[in-house]
Amino acid sequence: MEKLNQVKNFLKRMLASLILFFLLCILIDQGIISHHLLFDNFIDFSYIRSKSSILFGKSLKNEYVSSEKINYKNISKQDNGYLLEVDKNYVIKSIKNGVVIFIGKKSDLGTSIIINSDEGVNIVYDGLENINVKLYDYIHKDTIIGSTITNKLYLEFKNHDTYLSYEDFL
Fold first, then answer.
1. Residues in Cβ contact with 60 at an 8 Å cutoff, skipping those fewer than 6 apart
2. DSSP labels for the chain?
3. Is residue 123 part of a domain?
4. Which of 2, 117, 128, 134 could, after both became Cys, cross-link 146 (CB 3.0–4.6 A)?
5. Cα dihedral sign for 38, 42, 43, 45?
6. Could you tell me if residue 164 is inside a domain?
7. CATH number, domain with residue 117
8. Are both 93 and 44 inside the same structural domain?
9. CB neighbours of 52 closer than 8 A, spacing ≥ 6?
10. What is the span of the domain harbouring residue 9?
């Protein structure tokens, strides 16, 4: 009986997914929704992910986590963010739950990762290697996202057009 309920729930979720997919395709095809909208910052991926996990359930992806806070020796203001002095090859974890919205080069420090937190704050981690996440992954707080290349880690906290202080996050 329980197996039958699991199959019914799966079929309901699959049907709901197909309906949403085809509705989105029709809206884009008719020009009601621009396909460029999908690549703008207009869409709040973390909000969509949190609501879809209620409807469709959680993913089965394995995540590596660490409950350690970021230990830094020195912190200084740089541009719109903060440069932390940490150990070389220091393992960096996510400060908040959120969606990975960018992985790439933004500076000379190394690979940058931007996570859009559930609260709407974009957190930039710069100077990383050994990246453990993929674009559009929903990750939880304390998920290991990579390690530093040198003994420098750049962090930036931005909510819409306002840059925030590190004290609220570290």
1. none
2. -HHHHHHHHHHHHHHHHHHHHHHHHHHHHTTSS-GGGGGSTTS-HHHHHHHHHHHH--------B--PPPP-SEEEEETTEEEEE--TT-EEE-SS-EEEEEEEESSSSSEEEEEEETTSEEEEEEEEES----TT-EE-TTBEEEEESSSEEEEEEEETTEE--GGGT-
3. yes
4. 128
5. positive
6. yes
7. 2.70.70.10
8. no
9. none
10. 2-56
Q: Is there a single domain that holds both residue 51 and residue 19?
A: yes
Work out how many domains the chain is built from and give that number: 2
* Tokens of residue 92, six digits: 């960096």
Tell me: do 86 and 153 sit in the same domain. yes
37-87: pLDDT as tens digits: 555 555 566 666 666 666 666 554 555 554 567 788 889 998 889 999 998
Please check whether residue 16 is in contact with residue 8, taking contact to mean a CB–CB distance below 8 angstroms: no
Tokens of 34: 């621009």
- State the amino acid at position 155 in one-letter form: L
Q: How many residues does the chain have?
A: 170
pTM to 2 decimals? 0.63
- For 39, residues 6+ apart whose C-beta sits below 8 A from its C-beta are none
- Amino acid letter, 100: V
